[in-house]
Amino acid sequence: MKELAVTTRDIARELARKYSTMTHDELTTLEGILVPMKFAKGDMIIHEKEVCKCIYYIWHGLIRQFYFKNGKEVTEHLGVDRSIFMCIESLFKEEPSKLQVEALEPSLIYALPKKRLEEEAIHNVNIQMLYRKILEESLIISQVHADLVRFETAQARYKKICQLNPQVVLRAPLNYIANYLQMTPETLSRVRTATLNEG
């Protein structure tokens, strides 16, 4: 299977295609930074109070980023194949994370240790560009989610996630999707039915 035969070189090329142009030597440098990691369904990728030291790229799999508020889990992010995640505050402040990250499917993830990335970015413009573009993307994703739950109706929230992240809607458990969209599973069920009936 192609998914199993992927190399760190393939991942370096994929990241360069997405975020920055790179020479052969720069790809080799990026390849040297990447750390492959495999997780089974239910494995914790980042634990609460752990310092996040990497940016993570999901080659294949599904993750959920969440925290506890008043004893209840709050899903902040659902990530799927070919996307980035990190605990941004912990990463930059080098403080224990309030967030946790769990694999919801068997996942192959490539870590980009921040320290190595920054060392290379100092004297490599294209790796600096890649780093900047990844951070920009992460901030935009956070802002889109914040605006979604602040300003949109339940139905508009659901339609937006279907449009932006159809794979998440197909693969993530409904209770996590509902939690991410800040609605009850019952509301999500009603909204889905109404949306399907519109179609």
UniProtKB/TrEMBL annotation:
It holds the Pfam family cNMP_binding. InterPro entries: cNMP-bd_dom (IPR000595), cNMP-bd_dom_sf (IPR018490), RmlC-like_jellyroll (IPR014710). SUPFAM superfamilies: cAMP-binding domain-like (SSF51206). Residues 37-119 form the Cyclic nucleotide-binding domain. It comes from the Bacteria. Gene3D superfamilies: Jelly Rolls (2.60.120.10). This is Crp/Fnr family transcriptional regulator. It comes from Segatella cerevisiae.
